[in-house]
Amino acid sequence: MWVLIVQRIAIDFLLHIVYFPVWWYTGGVKKAGLYCLDLLLAGNEYLAPDLWIRNIFVPMFGQTDWQGRLVSFFIRFVNIIFRVIGFILWTAVVIVVFALWLVWPIFVVYLIFALL
């Protein structure tokens, strides 16, 4: 009986080792991609550059005179520039995280064989 249990555990263990790369580059990539997409959407929601662009000509604090409109425009313009730069940097970070997800198993296998 113990032989059958150990045999079953060994076969199951070997099947998981063989199936792991298949899952990593199929279902795992899909999960990682959706997670990275959620990160991008969260960054867009947090920085909201599109909202600032839509409201670039709306006067701040109800200052409808020409000085208030001019100051509001320039403040929002600078704000849009920094938010777009921040979103571009955030997008780069998310792309690097996704690339690391893809490369990680290959790197681990390389290290295993390099240390032998």
From the alpha-carbon coordinates, what is the Rg to the nearest angstrom? Answer: 26 Å
Please report the distance between the alpha carbons of the first and last residues.
36 Å
With helices defined by DSSP (H or I, 4 residues minimum), what is the helix count? 4
Number of DSSP E strands: 0
Shape: rod-shaped
**Chain-averaged pLDDT:** 91
| Category from helices, strands and their pairing | mainly alpha
How much of the residues is beta strand, in percent? Answer: under 5%
Helix content: over 70%
Count of discrete domains: 1
Q: Spell out the helices and strands N to C.
A: HHHH
Uncertain stretches of 5 or more adjacent residues: none
The biggest beta sheet is recorded as: none
Structure characterization notes:
There is one protein chain. By secondary structure, the protein is an all-alpha fold. The chain has one domain (2-115). Helix content is 86%, strand content 0%. It contains 4 helices and no strands. The chain has helices spanning 2-24, 27-47, 49-54, 66-115. The model has no long low-confidence stretch (mean pLDDT 91).
Short description:
The protein is an all-alpha fold and 116 residues long. The chain has one domain. It is built from four helices and no strands.
Structural descriptors:
116 residues; mainly alpha; 4 helices; membrane; transmembrane helix; transmembrane
